[in-house]
Amino acid sequence: MDFSSKLLENAVHEMAQLPGIGKRTALRLVLHLLKQPEEQTTHLAKALVDLKTEVKFCKNCHNISDHDLCEICANPNREKSIVCVVEDVRDVMAIENTSQYKGLYHVLGGKISPMDGVGPNQLHISTLIDKVKNGEVTEIIFALSSTMEGDTTNFYIYKQLQDFEVTTSTIARGIGVGDELEYADEVTLGRSILHRVPFENSLKS
Question: What is 11-41 written as a DSSP string?
Fold first, then answer.
């Protein structure tokens, strides 16, 4: 792709680094921004810089937050003894949109995937185990996607928790096997949370 401007080429190159954005889409987006008032583009640039430099991760659940504690963990009306284990913030948003879950979350930051070089030590698993050890949690809900990596991660955490008095459950399989959680519709996802089943039962299916 030939560019008439090095500045344009640099902007397209950086935009194309985003997931799902190819060179042609990046060019279209950059040309769109170029046509916008300077103030609008400046606001976008500032929002991205602020996101990178000022965003925090909740010290309790690892969710993205503006403060040390996210709004969910800081909410006194949430059921703090129930923790829903998810892969990332998109899953928190998906479950929250169902309005069916009133407990807390624990964001792992990924799934165990040896093929991608991701092991248990790269995820926020130890802090979850600590919560159980401290007696803060009575139920763990596994809400990872129904993929091989998701099931492997669920089973690994389940084995780590076997010596503790904590109930482990998993969302009902209204979510199809192999489906990513973030793409499930809100009704199906909400029902899966409400009709969760003991994790041991899911091992037999």
Answer: HHHHHTTSTT--HHHHHHHHHHHHHS-HHHH
Bridge partners, residue 201, by sequence: none
In CATH, what number does 6-54 get?
Answer: 1.10.8.420
Alpha carbons 21 and 29: distance in angstroms, whole number = 10
pLDDT classification of 177: cutoffs 50, 70, 90: very low
Q: For domain 60-204, give the fold.
A: Dna Topoisomerase Vi A Subunit; Chain: A, domain 2 (3.40.1360)
Instruction: Decide: pTM greater than 0.90.
Output: no
Q: What pairs with residue 197 in β-bridges?
A: 170
More confident residue, 29 or 179: 29
The total of other beta-carbon atoms located within 10 Å of residue 154's CB is: 23
By the 8 A CB rule, do 30 and 11 touch? yes
